[in-house]
Amino acid sequence: SVNASETAEDTARAAEISKLRGDFELISAQLTAQISQIASRANTSSIQLADDRSQLVDASEASSAFLTGRMGSGMRSLENKTDTVTEAQKARLASIELALANVADGIKNFGDAEDSAQ
């Protein structure tokens, strides 16, 4: 009777251990699957981040090149306008110098005419 009782307890313990082992294996398999999914997502995220970073770098370089080009173009345009203004000022100055020279000649001629009239 004692042996039968111990055998029944052993059998019950063995069944409980077997159930726990089954539960453990099931939980272990679920955890492994979840870890695999997380690792896969992390890898995908890492690839996505690398792609995003690459696109940002490309966009930044393109923006920088565009702005540098615009600045260069603006500087050339400004230089051209400055050159045009400078040329116009030189032409105006030459015109004023010529007018002053004509006035000076007129005054000189007027003075010469007065001298010869006396």
Strand content: under 5%
Measured distance between first and last alpha carbons: 170 Å
Cα-atom radius of gyration: 50 Å
Class derived from helix and strand content: mainly alpha
β-strand number: 0
Q: What helical percentage do the residues reach?
A: over 70%
3D shape: rod-shaped
Q: In sequence order, what are the helices and strands, one letter per element?
A: H
Major sheet summary line: none
Task: Please characterize this protein's 3D structure.
- This protein starts with a helix and ends with a helix.
- The protein has one helix at 2-117.
- It is mainly α and 118 residues long.
- It contains one helix and no strands.
- The longest helix is centred in the middle third of the chain and has 116 residues, at 2-117.
- The mean pLDDT is 89.
Salient structural properties:
118 residues, mainly alpha
Note the topology:
Blueprint: H1 2-117
